[in-house]
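Researcher: I'm preparing a figure for a lab meeting and need a structural model of a single chain. I don't have an experimental structure, so a prediction will have to do for now. The sequence is pasted below. Please return the structure as tokens so I can convert it later.
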Amino acid sequence: MANLLIVGGGKMGSALLGGLLDRGAHAADAVTVVEPLDDRRKELEESYPGVRTVSAPELGLLDEGGEVMRGAVLAVKPDQAEGACRALGVSGVRRVLSIVAGVPCQRLESALGGEPAVVRAMPNTPALIGAGVAAMAGGSFARAADLAWAESLLDSLGTVVRLPERNLDAVTGLSGSGPAYFFLVAESLIEAGVQMGLTHEVSRTLVVETMRGSAALLAETGRDPASLRADVTSPAGTTAAGVRTLEARAVRSAFMEAVAAATERSRNLQR
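Model: Understood. Here is the structure written out token by token.
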């Protein structure tokens, strides 16, 4: 029997599975994936030998021992989350880490029944390559051991921060949606390079490596981004001309409004 269920074998569920196995945090035969699609179950079994897959939660899937490690990860679509929790509750699962967007702990707790330990997390898509960031929050009945268990799982996807649940909508608007903002910037810069006479391949290489290096510089130096930007911006120089144009077009304000809009949308999804 398994000590971990992963409910949902899609991109995020399989990313978590792969991360846990790669780190040696779980043995393959200690994980069961609940996935209703036959073809997807076959793919998972071929990609992760030793992992068991089933079509639905059932009694006896989780080992009765190993209480420290036992629990389920909920990685389904938002409209499937409460139904999946009801099935988990019937099958005896009392601890759940949810990586489902927009579904608060209270609704998952009600669906599970009783006083289950629910931890809600918001990872982002770089988690697919182990380079994501996730914020997590405990529900009404989650204790320190439950939070530690959830964090040990999320570690396989990248960086983890703990926050009150009321802050998770802002996390969704910032880091959950954030990769799309960066991809839009990259898309625009690549196109700009092409317009200035570069080939698409060269422009893409320059943009991707500039973004990679800039992120590393920001992370590794710990310096404020405004300070690093000032280092690049010589008075009356080329960078100053470019930044002046961006500021004139209210790019800074546009990003702030984008995060606010995504945050509000996350709040609305819960109503």
